[in-house]
Amino acid sequence: MALLDVRDLKLHYATPEGPLRAVDGVSFIIAEPGEAVGIVGESGSGKTSLASAIMRLLPTNVSCYEGQVLYKGTDLMKLSDEAFRRDIRSRTIALVAQGAMNTLNPVLRVGFQITERLLLEPGVGKEEASRRAEDLVERVGLAREVVQRYPHELSGGMKQRVGIAMALVMSPQVLILDEPTSALDVSVQAQVMNLLKQLKRDAGLAMLFITHDIALASDLCDRILVAYGGQLVEQGSADSVLPGPKHPYTQKLIASIPRLHGANKPDFLSGTSPDLVSPPSGCRFRERCPHAFEPCESKDPPAIKVGKEHTARCWLYQSDPVAAGEKTAR
Ligand SMILES: Nc1ncnc2c1ncn2[C@@H]1O[C@H](COP(=O)(O)OP(=O)(O)OP(=O)(O)O)[C@@H](O)[C@H]1O
Ligand code: SF4
Ligand SMILES: [Mg+2]
Hints:
Helix 4 (126-139) packs across helix 5 and helix 5 (156-168) runs parallel beside helix 6 (186-203). The chain has helices at 47-55, 81-88, 110-115, 126-139, 156-168, 186-203, 214-220, 238-241, 248-255, 294-298, 321-324, and strands at residues 4-13, 20-30, 36-40, 62-71, 74-75, 93-96, 174-178, 206-211, 223-228, 231-237, 304-307, 310-312. Helix content is 29%, strand content 22%. It has an 8-stranded mixed β-sheet with strand order 6-7-8-3-9-10-12-11, with helices on both faces. A 4-stranded antiparallel β-sheet has the order 2-1-4-5, with helices on one face. It starts with a strand and ends in a 6-residue tail after the last helix. The protein is α/β, with parallel strands linked by helices. The radius of gyration is 21 Å and the shape is globular. It folds into 2 domains: 4-92 and 174-266, 3-Layer(aba) Sandwich (Rossmann fold), CATH 3.40.50.300; 102-171, no CATH class. A hairpin with a 2-residue loop joins strand 4 and strand 5. The structure holds adenosine-5'-triphosphate, iron/sulfur cluster (SF4) and magnesium ion. Magnesium ion binds next to helix 1.
């Protein structure tokens, strides 16, 4: 049984133009403790919305929220809001939200902010909480005295570590990190990535690591999920997806990584991400795809097996010529 098993999850928002399908039938698993799964995709592909859907942190304009989120076999979508808040959020699955380092309260010491959630627990006193805050800042690589400081006394990298410490306060089994390093310079980014690797290795934390940077995801993650237009278009082990991307979008993402050596120039993807209120018919990538052929316009491709535990939503891999139609590259 998988640790986390997300099945056909949907989160649509009501907008004046109609429902916006930010998460549109997403399925994936985190198999076991200590596994890191990376979600990679461009801006607007629905990554943060997927994290919000799993954490049940929803805005008021939700028009559809359905699917299954199984944690060790129990469907969290069936829990009441109160049970979810009490037993799941922070305690079982915790989130380091996008831009978390900029949302620390400027007038509260970081130690208090780290333990705010813990202090809601019955029987937890201030002394125990402040000891826990010191242990946690130490665990994320900061000096214990940092708990006494205010956010403006910390660098960006330190604030991000505090954000991670806050998420760890209830000892969750699964940590969702939404772009945890995108506002940091490269050397600080590397330090935070090393911290995440250490937490994964030593504490057996399972992670869902959200990023627009596939190279960064490959550094940490065992498996890679590629998001495009509210769907996951490719999934597989990092060892399989990175050297052999199958979906044309993933191929473009990997080709766009700048390289220090070699003659190959980065190949950037042209065009804009699909309108999620009225996405293109058939394959959502077809207006930007260099390989689009007949069936791509009429039918949305299912996840097709392209390797061992590796799938791609692309008609190029449909072996049944009747279903796929004749290939006529444009
Ligand atoms: N409350 C909302 N109401 C309407 N549309 C929304 C709402 N929240 C997000 N969206 C839209 O949903 C889509 C997915 O947004 P989301 O923030 O999940 O993308 P993302 O992949 O995290 O992007 P980024 O990489 O920029 O963080 C976007 O088109 C966004 O504008
Ligand atoms: S299904 Fe067609 S349009 Fe979509 S990625 Fe594959 S070839 Fe391109
Ligand atoms: Mg986001």
